[in-house]
Specification:
alpha+beta, 5-stranded mixed β-sheet, 30% strand, single chain, 3 helices, 107 residues
């Protein structure tokens, strides 16, 4: 006999999909290794006075993807913490077959 999962019969109280978050402007789709979503807070870090720095964003995202790849080689998990330029960021598995990069205060 298999053990029943505690959550099998749990009522879903609230659901908010990745697609809804993208539509609402909370998340932005990207393509950097396994990272396929970033929060608006990450995007805003590269916008100064209405000008977006694509080069800096790409550098940052490539570094985040590289660090995620290194951590995934060491241990398979759904949640990771990385450091870039002395700041801490979280990367969590999402419902869109990838990972979302966020600031700690956005978790």
């Amino acid at each position: 006999m298999t053990e029943k999962d505690f959550w099998d019969d749990a009522e879903i109280v609230f659901s908010y999909t990745d697609k809804q978050a993208v539509d609402d402007g909370i998340l932005m789709p990207v393509s950097f290794g396994e990272i396929n979503l970033v929060t608006d807070g990450i995007v805003q870090m590269f916008s100064k006075k209405g000008i977006f720095s694509m080069d800096e964003f790409n550098r940052f995202m490539n570094e985040a993807a590289r660090k995620l790849g290194e951590q995934r080689k060491r241990k398979s998990d759904w949640f990771y913490s990385i450091q870039i330029d002395k700041d801490k960021y979280f990367i969590a598995e999402n419902g869109s077959k990838g990972f979302t990069l966020m600031k700690p205060e956005e978790y």
